[in-house]
């Protein structure tokens, strides 16, 4: 018996002719091709969506209405691009579990474009060298803050303390495309024009010297040019936030 493959969703139909309508995606017979005996049927790849706030992965044709981990809506999800790293999903998941043991801080990464301010929550800021003093941060390509940094060449980092849970919600659960995140907040304006939040522990600002394309993210490596301290409370860690939120 002949086999026909839907070129849209890879559904396989058996019969002398293609079906009038694909039972999976609904396209007509014109979208079916006859499978030769030597043709391997391509597996249907399920889409994966990553929450940009908590990194939860959802599998499905569309992002979920609500993230089951942090509660944000579908607009906070981005489609995960397939990464050719030689690992199976099971192997990658096991390695990711090990990496969860790495200690991370939490930060508000800010930038400026045409006098407009924006910021986002990140756990990827690190110091990379001490002489000269340089630091880096990785930001998702689809984020507004990433766009600001690429265009302005500067970014600021407000380092969060253990009492800054509200700032994580404020900067992580809404988009700067919809609201002015810095409205009604107290902040200083650094020498680069980036805002530093006064209710955080401290603020440093960097001028980008190198941008590395990581596929789904950009890594910005910058020279630390200025900073200021506001509090001596304990810094917020990623593990502490998830244990107390």
TrEMBL record:
Its cofactor is Fe(3+). InterPro entries: Flavin_Rdtase-like_dom, NADH-dep_flavin_reductase, Rubredoxin-like_dom, RUBY_RBDX, Split_barrel_FMN-bd. It comes from Acetobacterium wieringae. The gene is hrb. Keywords: Oxidoreductase. SUPFAM superfamilies: FMN-binding split barrel, Rubredoxin-like. The keyword Oxidoreductase applies. One of its GO terms (molecular function) is FMN binding. Pfam families: Flavin_Reduct, RUBY_RBDX. This is High molecular weight rubredoxin.
């Amino acid at each position: 018996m002949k086999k026909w493959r839907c070129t849209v969703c890879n559904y396989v139909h058996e019969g002398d002719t293609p079906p009038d309508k694909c039972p999976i995606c609904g396209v007509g017979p014109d979208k079916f091709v006859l499978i030769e005996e030597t043709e391997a049927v391509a597996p249907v790849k399920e889409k994966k969506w990553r929450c940009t706030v908590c990194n939860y992965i959802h599998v499905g044709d569309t992002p979920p209405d609500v993230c089951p981990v942090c509660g944000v809506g579908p607009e906070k999800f981005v489609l995960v691009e397939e990464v050719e790293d030689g690992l199976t999903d099971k192997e990658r998941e096991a390695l990711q579990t090990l990496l969860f043991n790495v200690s991370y801080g939490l930060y508000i990464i800010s930038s400026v474009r045409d006098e407009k301010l924006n910021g986002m929550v990140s756990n990827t800021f690190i110091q990379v060298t001490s002489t000269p003093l340089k630091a880096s941060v990785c930001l998702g390509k689809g984020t507004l803050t990433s766009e600001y940094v690429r265009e302005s060449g500067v970014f600021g980092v407000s380092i969060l303390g253990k009492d800054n849970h509200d700032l994580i919600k404020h900067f992580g659960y809404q988009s700067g495309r919809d609201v002015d995140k810095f409205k009604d907040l107290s902040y200083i304006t650094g020498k680069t024009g980036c805002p530093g939040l006064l209710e955080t522990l401290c603020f440093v600002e960097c001028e980008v010297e190198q941008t590395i394309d990581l596929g789904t993210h950009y890594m910005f490596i910058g020279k630390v040019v200025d900073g200021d301290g506001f509090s001596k409370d304990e810094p917020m860690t990623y593990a502490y936030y998830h244990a107390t939120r």
